[in-house]
Amino acid sequence: MIKDLPAEFRPDRPDRTTFGDGLMLLATAVMTGGSLGMIPEEPVWGVIGALFFGFGLYAQLFGHLWTLARRRSPGPAESLAPFGRTLRRGNPAGYGSLLRVLAGLQGRRRIRRRRSAAMLEFLAAQPALRAGLFHHAHRGELDLSTFVERLAADPRDPLVAALSSLHADGRVRERAVAAMASAPHRGHVPFLVERAVEWAPQVRSAALTALRDQLAAGPLILQDLRREYARVERRRHAPGVAELLPAG
Questions:
Q1: Gap between the Cα atoms of 55 and 59, Å rounded
Q2: Which of 107, 197, 232, 234 is most buried, judged by most C-beta within 10 A?
């Protein structure tokens, strides 16, 4: 999946192991072996040396294996960082690439929700990236079918519910809002605000109710809601969101 992305969206890879790193690993292994060989004649120093160099050998091996694993399978933050840096409104093909990466990074079901939450938090912290996502979804230029299918199977997946709320079908948007209401997440606020100012009254009402309930349960989202209201305040149905904000 990663290798098929345009170059500007490929994640930064950790540096490869250098010749110097390999030489250091070999030297540490030799010193560990030498220390072990000293134990029969110099037990105290042999054990101290074996422990010292053995720990160093273990740390180096772990570091090399960790670097290899990251190169082969970068995590959500590393995979999405290039999109946050370069992807903006006006590039629907780029947003298509973003959605493919988001769908692929979710992984197996047992770890999907944890990864989904991390990816949703990334999107929530990237207003310029989200603006383009909302724009191209509204224009029907993005394929959200993968997330809509997953919504039926796992409506409590936070990313799936958020992205399904951008679908062209109002019935899907309504189900997605209901899913966000039943499994609240702070990263849902921008998506719920987007639905709270849309044209369909059923979706709009459900989104406002979900926002009201989240505010009552955790006032920490108030700052997020104020920021998102500033984004939509010129829209026709923005007064509904304004009514949720405390005076002053």
A1: 6
A2: 197
Owner of token pair 């939509």: 232
In this structure, which amino acid lies at residue 194? Answer: E
Give dist(CA 130, CA 123) in Å, integer. Answer: 6
Tokens matching residue 49? 């040396």
What's the pTM?
A: 0.77
Tokens coding 15: 């540096």
CB-based contact 94:9 (threshold 8 Å)? yes
Give per-residue pLDDT as tens, 123-136: 999 999 999 999 99
Cα 112 to chain centroid distance, Å, stands at 11
| DSSP string for residues in 147-190 | HHHHHHH-TT-HHHHHHHTT-S-HHHHHHHHHHHHHS--GGGHH
Q: Which residues of 184-219 are buried (b: 16+ CB within 10 A; e: fewer)?
A: bbbbbbbbbbbbbbbeeeebbebbbebbeebbeeee
**13: alpha, beta or left? (left if phi > 0; alpha if psi -120 to 50):** beta
Q: What is the pLDDT of residues 152-183, one digit of tens each?
A: 999 999 999 999 999 999 999 999 999 999 99
Residues of the chain whose pLDDT is less than 50? 15, 69
Task: Return d(Cα 179, Cα 113) in angstroms, integer.
Answer: 13
Domain positions in the chain? 19-72, 76-242
Tokens of 167: 């679908």
Nearest one of 10, 13, 27, 111 to 68, comparing CA atoms = 13
